[in-house]
Automatic annotation (TrEMBL):
Single GO cellular component term: early endosome membrane
Lipid bilayer topology: Peripheral membrane protein
UniProt organism field: Parasteatoda tepidariorum
Annotated localization: Membrane
The entry's keywords: Membrane, Protein transport, Transport
Annotated Gene3D superfamilies: EF-hand (1.10.238.10), Phox-like domain (3.30.1520.10)
Pfam families: EH, PX, Snx8_BAR_dom
Protein name listed in UniProt: Sorting nexin-8-like
The keyword DNA damage is assigned to this record: no
């Protein structure tokens, strides 16, 4: 590890903290962010003041090395040591100590907000930062019965909100409707279909996974993740959520009427945005088709592993059945040959090994389904949401052009100055809304590009799972080699037994 300071090497945690508090992307630590970071150490104010005095360069900003010094001093202070310049100068350890700073989610969110305010035309987010915003888990709650029909509930857990609530499918529908009402200019993911009757286990599991992707895309969205509607959904623990949520947010204004950037949106939209959007949409169509093919191939890979598991189980079952066959031996038929007896003993030893092979294939399929297939599905979900957003913009733009044409004709033929003024204001409002819509699409496009790193995760997972999984399966097969080689024992040598049966 490279030494960034004279008194020790820097652990990865220090670099992570630098990325968080250097919100302006100018290699200068934000002072407010730094103070918030120090407070998270839970050290006494007097100690924090001493640390500040030791690292403050009186230049109006804090450098990377200054931040690293502060983190080291915080760690030393938490160890009960008296902070001083000598403490760090005399440090001879290989790696600087890591301070305890608790949950950093709020700092990450503040960093993202400051970065966006600094350069509103750049999303400026990494895939790691997006994933760190929140992690939502969904589990099926054991089935409950209503008065007439059974219904399914989901346990929803949000890491960021430290919440655990139960939700029904219709609650998700209400959430989506409210978000589309407030954020029509953003990518809102689709919901899985509702199946009223005959929902089997596979349907429920597929829907659970889809709902999990739906919520994670929302909880990790740079704008929607901070909205009160989503927070209400993830934290409200009362009953009848969908109706309470609709009542609570009744008449909510859409983002254009509540976002401070809306009035200045024209300045945030590059001149060639409309043409660029056409180019990007074609690119996204090609990306979608490619990822759809990857998904279909992965599904076949997973299905093959499941089939391999099933076949190995069936193969072992048939061996076991043969080994336990109760038919009487006939010396007349065998002529004294003991091959069948030897084979029956050998098959009993091999049977449990084949069950282990079956379990290994099933485990591999399960992990590939979760770590590869689900990641591809998540990216396809965001691409679908992006396409629907662009379709909404085309529809909006078409309606605005038609209205503008009619209003232009009305202004040209009207002699009433009040009517003309009203038409002009309406036209200007639509123009502002159009620019804001384009600005939002620009940000959503950058968000899709950030999510493209999913492919890296997919490939790494696929390689890792296949390497470990097939190596494990190969080891099990190799364990069976001596069992198969000695199915018919050589006279005078003991018969090997299964390691599992022992």
């Amino acid at each position: 590890m490279a030494a960034d300071l004279a008194f020790g090497t820097v652990p990865p945690f220090y670099r992570e903290m630098y990325d968080i508090v250097c919100a302006n992307q100018e290699n200068v630590v934000d002072q407010d962010m730094f103070i918030k970071l120090l407070v998270k150490s839970s050290l006494p104010k007097q100690t924090l003041s001493q640390i500040w005095e030791l690292v403050d360069t009186r230049q109006g900003y804090l450098s990377r090395s200054g931040l690293y010094k502060a983190l080291a001093l915080v760690a030393f202070a938490q160890q009960g040591k008296q902070v001083s310049e000598k403490l760090i100068q005399n440090f001879t350890g290989e790696e600087l100590p890591k301070p305890s700073l608790g949950d950093l989610t709020d700092l990450r969110i503040l960093s993202i907000r400051l970065r966006r305010e600094k350069n509103p035309m750049r999303l400026g987010l990494t895939y790691h930062e997006i994933c760190a915003l929140d992690s939502v888990q969904i589990a099926l709650v054991p089935e409950k019965k209503g008065l007439f029909l059974k219904h399914v509930e989901y346990e929803v857990t949000s890491q960021r909100n430290k919440s655990n609530v139960q939700r029904r499918y219709n609650d998700f529908v209400a959430l989506q409707e409210l978000l589309l009402q407030k954020f029509p200019y953003r990518s809102i993911p689709q919901l899985p279909p509702k199946k009223v009757m005959g929902a089997d286990e596979q349907f429920l599991e597929d829907r659970r996974k889809s709902l999990k992707r739906f919520l994670n895309l929302l909880a990790r969205h740079p704008v929607i993740s901070e909205d009160k509607i989503l927070h209400f959904f993830l934290t409200f623990s009362g009953t009848d959520l969908q109706h309470k949520m609709k009542d609570h947010f009744r008449g909510v204004l859409d983002e254009f009427n509540s976002n401070e950037q809306a009035n200045d949106a024209e300045e945030l939209v590059p001149i060639d945005s409309f043409n660029q959007l056409s180019i990007v949409r074609e690119q996204m169509k090609q990306v979608y088709n490619g990822f759809q093919q990857l998904k279909e191939v992965t599904e076949r890979v997973v299905d093959r592993a499941k089939q391999e598991s099933s076949d190995m189980l069936l193969f072992g079952k048939e061996l076991c059945s043969l080994a336990n066959s109760a038919s009487a031996e006939s010396d007349w038929g065998s002529g004294g040959n003991e091959t069948w007896d030897d084979l029956k003993r050998g098959m009993k030893n091999i049977h449990p090994m084949l069950s282990t092979v079956s379990s290994a294939y099933l485990d591999l399929a399960s992990k590939e389904e979760e770590e590869v297939l689900e990641e591809l599905n998540l990216f396809l979900d965001i691409l679908t949401a992006y396409k629907e957003l662009c379709d909404r913009y085309e529809q909006f733009n078409s309606v605005v052009r038609q209205k503008s044409s009619r209003k232009l004709l009305a202004r040209q033929t009207s002699t009433n100055p009040i009517v003309v003024d009203a038409e002009n204001q309406a036209h200007q409002l639509n123009e502002k809304r159009n620019y804001f819509f384009l600005h939002c699409i620009h940000m959503e496009t950058q968000l899709v590009h950030t999510y493209m790193q999913v492919l890296v995760k997919v490939l790494q997972s696929l390689v890792s799972l296949r390497t470990k999984g097939l190596s494990n399966i190969s080891t099990i097969w190799k364990t069976m080699e001596p069992l198969t080689e000695n199915l018919i024992p050589i006279p005078g040598t003991p018969s090997p037994t299964s390691t599992i049966s022992r």
